[in-house]
Amino acid sequence: MAETEATTPAMPQAAKADQFPCAQCGAKLRFKPGTDAVKCDHCGHENPIPKRPWTRIEEQDLAEGLDRIESTAATEEKRTVKCGSCAAEFTFDPHIHAATCPFCGSAVVAETHTVRVIQPAALVPFELDEKKAQGAFKKWLGSLWFAPSDLAKFAATDGKLAGMYVPYWTYDAQTYSGYEGERGDAYYVPYTVTREVDGKSVTETRQRREIRWTYASGEVERFFDDVLVVASRSLPKKYADKLDTWRLSSLQPYRTEYIAGFRSEVYQVTLKDGFGEAKRRMEDQIRSDVRSDIGGDEQRIHHINTAWEDLRFKHILLPVWLAAYRYRGKVFQILINGQTGEVEGQRPYSWIKIGLAALAAAVVVGVIVWLLAKGR
Question: Model pTM?
C-alpha cells in the first residue's frame, strides 16, 4: 500500500457542522475538490488542510473484525436523515429543514437522528467539482442513442447533482488452491456424407471435432488486493458495480476536513455480507486461474480446495456525484465518479425514435431486396 498522510481521530459529534471555521472571517468552510484546501462559502478564502506526518493506511484483520467489529473498530457518531421513499440514510446539514433525497429525488423532511457507525479508515477526496461533473453528465446524455429529444434539457434543470461520499468495504486475501479435473484436447476425425446437388449424388469429406480427456491436477495461488464491495443499498447495484475506474492509490487517511460541504452515506451492507460477495468474486477468479493452469481446449473442474490466509479489510469512502430525476413519472439515477468523471446510470428511451429507426431499416432492406430481384 502507498504511504500517505496520517490522521487524527474524528470528532465524536459529527453534528458540529462549523468545526472548521474560516481563518479569515470565521464562516463555514467547504472542501474544494481537486485541492488540499477547504474554501469559505462567505468570503471565498481558501484555508489549506494542515499537513500531517506520512504514515500507512492499515487494513484490519477480517477474522477479528467479524467476531468483535463493534467493540474493536474505531467508531464515530453521525447525524443522519433517512429517506422515507428509498430508505437511504445519509448525513444532513442540521441548519436545513427540508431538501431532496439525492438517491431517488423524493422530498425529505430533515428529522435527523444520531447513529454510531464504524469510522472509515480512508477516503478518496473529490477531484471533480460540480461544474466538471455537470460537464461529464451532459456529455454522457449527448452520447445516448434513442434518447427523448427533451431529455438533456429536462435533466439539466431537474437533475441537480449532489456530492456524496459512498461507503465501500475492501478485502485482501492470500489464496492457495489445489484442484483436480480433466484437460480436453481437441482432435478431428474425417467422415463422409452424401447429399443431392442439382439432381446428382455428391459425396463429401468433413471433419468432426472430438475431445480427448486426460486427468489433471495442480495448485494455483493468487493474492487479492483491495477487492471493492459497495456498502450501499440505495444505489442501483448494476451501475454502482460498473463504476470501477477508481484510483485507490489516491486514498487518504480519513479526515473530516475532506467531508466538509459534502454528504456521506451510512453503510447498509455489513462487513460479513460484504465479504460474502467479495469471496464469490475471488472464487470466480480462482476458477479462471484453474482453467488456465489446466490448459487445453476445454477443461473440467471436479473440485477445488482453497486455503484462505491473511484475510484483511478496511472501510473507505469514495466520491460520487449523484443525479436523481423524474422523467414522465419514473425516477432515473445517474452516478458520476467524483475522481475520474466516469458516468453510469439509467436512461429513458424514445420509442418513437426506435420505431422510426426500425421503419427506416425495413425500408432499406426492402429496397435492397427489390434491387437484387430486379437484377436477376
Answer: 0.77
